[in-house]
Amino acid sequence: MSVKIAFEEVTQVYGDTGKGGGTRALEHFSLEIAERNFVCLLGPSGCGKSTVLNLAAGFEKPSGGSVLIDGKTVTGPGRDRGMVFQEPLLLPWRNVIENVMLGPCLAGWPKVEALAQARHYLRLTGLERFERHASYELSGGMRQRVALARAWIGEPPVLLMDEPFGALDAQTRLVMQELLLEIWEQTRTTVLFVTHDVDEALFLGDRVVVMSASPGRVLLDLAVDLPRPRTEEILTSPRFADAKRRCLRLIGEESRRAFGHLEGDGI
Ligand SMILES: Nc1ncnc2c1ncn2[C@@H]1O[C@H](COP(=O)(O)OP(=O)(O)OP(=O)(O)O)[C@@H](O)[C@H]1O
């Protein structure tokens, strides 16, 4: 399978870089993601997970190294990459279907086509009965389902997800994970998914990549050897427990290292 997203020796430094200053968010960060793969990114807080996504989205340019999509350097945002954030960021003055149709309408799609495609994704996300509802009439999980439909409507070959279920309660979260996998099985979009939650990463991913404490680089790249379609029972399987233990141990060590580093700095 061809490489869809590649990070080659990426360094990202924020702030005043003179005299070695600034914040080194990423250093020697290298990662290749094959087309149609679902890769989850885990790591201690502040290790640079969102920075990785922002670079792939083209919101930022790397200080060093390269970020490539289909072998071409990313120079800015593009319709080939959809993004889902922790907050659904819906426009409150537009109803559900108008929010989902926003991208296609801005891109000049014929209205009938945009409407048909929006209805298709509202059906897949179980929101067909709510298309005329205002966003304040929806629960957090429903709002995030609208955000998923909005990201998917243009059928971008790459989906970048930054803790999209982080604000949801555990039960809603599991339902959303199952829904995401169900749609992904049909679309086979290449997904890069950031999360703090090891269970979530292992439940969703073909691979789980664990990052080091800041400056972030790849510490572990684990192929998730669990059958698909994934069901709730997988969460209690011995293979799942083994992989979870490995990831947790590494993240724990890195988090303690990051904390020790801060203490050393007198913080
Ligand atoms: N625009 C920015 N300007 C300055 N510093 C930044 C900027 N964006 C990120 N950083 C810094 O870069 C480092 C990595 O941040 P990033 O948000 O990518 O980490 P993260 O792993 O996503 O964090 P968390 O898990 O807590 O959301 C942090 O030290 C952060 O303060």
TrEMBL record:
InterPro entries with a match to the protein in the record: AAA+_ATPase, ABC_transporter-like_ATP-bd, ABC_transporter-like_CS, ABC_transporter_ATP-bind, P-loop_NTPase
Organism superkingdom: Bacteria
Keywords: ATP-binding, Nucleotide-binding, Transport
Signal peptide positions on this chain: none
Domain annotation ABC transporter: ranges: 5-238
GO molecular function: ATP binding; ATP hydrolysis activity
PANTHER family the UniProt entry points to: ALIPHATIC SULFONATES IMPORT ATP-BINDING PROTEIN SSUB, TAURINE IMPORT ATP-BINDING PROTEIN-RELATED
Family the entry assigns: Belongs to the ABC transporter superfamily.
Name of the protein this chain belongs to: Taurine ABC transporter
